């Protein structure tokens, strides 16, 4: 997968896996990584799917309607890529924290839904429930921060609460942060994520 790897000052820190929103690329979230932890290594990845020229991490059939087969395939592809990248760049595979926005948050949530040890933790900005009706792996103790908008037209507050419950029921420690805004990524929620991260 097309990506950028920036080695951090402190190898004991998690590697931050940055996952952009629809139409973004691997450059978009680099400033965000610095706001969360400026000493951590950063692996920022570009989604392999194109929708009318816009990069994404998996196909969708319509707004909010995911192509499940492609989602499962792309989730495995990203997990395999993380395994390869850990060897190539010599970072600890079991110490990766994903930070995703929108479509990137959805593929990060999908990694949690499908693989027990894909992520050490995750910061999900405006995620949806990636897939319904499956049993989640045991996520005991996995820290997850969700930022959601009370007026998000793409992800309803009900869906954010449903995602929190599904992850909670699998054993994850979920913090759900609300902004009285829509789908946009706000400074305030990034600051809240940084405070959450520092307490890990
Ligand atoms: C998705 O397709 O992943 C969600 O609708 C969010 C987005 O617009 O990317």
What is the CATH class name? Answer: Alpha Beta
CATH superfamily: Alpha/Beta hydrolase fold, catalytic domain
Major β-sheet annotation:
7 strands, mixed
- What are the secondary-structure elements, in order, as H or E? EEHEEEEEHEHEEHEH
Low-pLDDT stretches are none
> Roughly how much helix do the residues carry, as a percent range?
25-40%
Radius of gyration: 15 Å
Bound molecules: D-malate
Order of strands, widest sheet: 1-3-2-8-9-10-11
Describe this structure in words.
By secondary structure, the chain is α/β, with parallel strands linked by helices. It has one domain: Rossmann fold. The protein is built from 5 helices and 11 strands. The protein has helices spanning 30-36, 68-89, 103-114, 157-169, 187-198, and strands spanning 3-6, 15-19, 42-45, 49-51, 54-56, 60-62, 65-66, 96-101, 121-125, 143-149, 173-179. The strands form 3 sheets. A 7-stranded mixed sheet has the order 1-3-2-8-9-10-11, sandwiched between helices. It has a two-stranded antiparallel ribbon with strand order 4-5. The protein has a two-stranded antiparallel sheet with strand order 6-7. α4 (157-169) links the parallel β10 (143-149) and β11. α2 (68-89) packs across α3. The chain is globular. The mean pLDDT is 98. The structure holds D-malate. D-malate binds at residues 21-22, 60, 63-64, 102-103, 106, 128, 154.
């Amino acid at each position: 997968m097309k990506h950028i790897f920036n080695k951090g000052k402190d190898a004991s820190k998690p590697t931050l896996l940055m996952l952009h929103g629809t139409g973004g690329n691997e450059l978009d979230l680099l400033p965000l990584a610095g706001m969360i932890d400026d000493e951590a290594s950063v692996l920022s990845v570009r989604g392999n799917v194109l929708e009318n020229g816009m990069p994404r991490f998996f196909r969708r059939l319509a707004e909010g309607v995911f192509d499940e087969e492609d989602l499962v395939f792309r989730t495995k592809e990203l997990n395999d890529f993380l395994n390869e990248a850990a060897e190539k760049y010599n970072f600890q595979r079991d110490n990766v924290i994903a930070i995703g926005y929108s479509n990137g948050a959805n593929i990060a949530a999908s990694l949690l839904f499908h693989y027990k040890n894909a992520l050490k933790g995750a910061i999900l900005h405006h995620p949806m429930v990636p897939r319904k009706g499956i049993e989640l792996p045991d996520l005991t103790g996995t820290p997850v921060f969700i930022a959601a908008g009370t007026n998000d037209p793409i992800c309803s507050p009900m869906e954010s609460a449903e995602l929190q419950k599904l992850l909670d029921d699998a054993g994850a420690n979920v913090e759900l942060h609300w902004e009285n805004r829509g789908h946009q990524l706000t400074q305030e929620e990034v600051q809240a994520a940084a405070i959450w991260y520092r307490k890990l």
